[in-house]
Amino acid sequence: MKRFKEGAFRIAWQAGVPIVPITLSYNHLILPDVSIPLLNFKAGKMVVHAPIPTVGCTEKDLPLLKERAFTCIQEQLYRDEAARKPEMYENR
Fold first, then answer.
1. Measured distance CA(92)–CA(84) in Å, rounded
2. What is the chain's pLDDT, residue by residue, as a tens digit (92 residues)?
3. By C-alpha distance, which of 88, 7, 91, 9 is closest to 52?
4. DSSP assignment of the chain
5. Ramachandran category for residue 17: left, alpha or beta (phi over 0 → left; psi -120 to 50 → alpha)
6. Is there a contact between 37 and 30 (Cβ–Cβ < 8 Å)?
7. Domains of the chain, residue spans
8. Triad 4, 9, 12: Cα angle to 5°
9. Which has the closest alpha carbon to 90: 26, 15, 14?
10. φ/ψ (deg, to 5) at 87
11. Distance CA 15, CA 18 (A)
12. In the chain, what is the greatest distance between 2 CA atoms, to the nearest angstrom?
């Protein structure tokens, strides 16, 4: 997973709304990163995480907000990959 850009975090901070991290596990199985777009019909998983508040944050807190959201999603991806069953990679 690549590091997040600042735009969405800045908008949330300026609006005073929380950041809600969302993990899409197994996305790489459904939409593989190949030159010809392919769609594999496989089960996916979406996890909506607890909101990260932005009220009381300053502009200097933006990197911390990005890191908190990134870590939350990355840890979920690690947990889901550890729990993955081998048959999830099989084509149907």
1. 17
2. 789 999 999 999 999 999 999 998 877 777 777 777 676 677 778 899 999 999 999 999 999 999 999 999 999 999 988 887 666 556 54
3. 9
4. -PPPPSHHHHHHHHHT--B--EEEETHHHHS---SS--------EEEEPPPB--TT--GGGHHHHHHHHHHHHHHHHHHHHHH--GGGGS--
5. beta
6. no
7. 7-84
8. 155
9. 26
10. -65, -15
11. 9
12. 50
**Two tokens at 38?**
């392919």
Residues counted in the chain: 92
Amino acid letter at 79? Answer: R
Quickly tell me which residue has 């800045």 as its tokens: 10
* Token representation of residue 35: 């030159």
- Joined together, the tokens standing for residue 92 give 């149907």
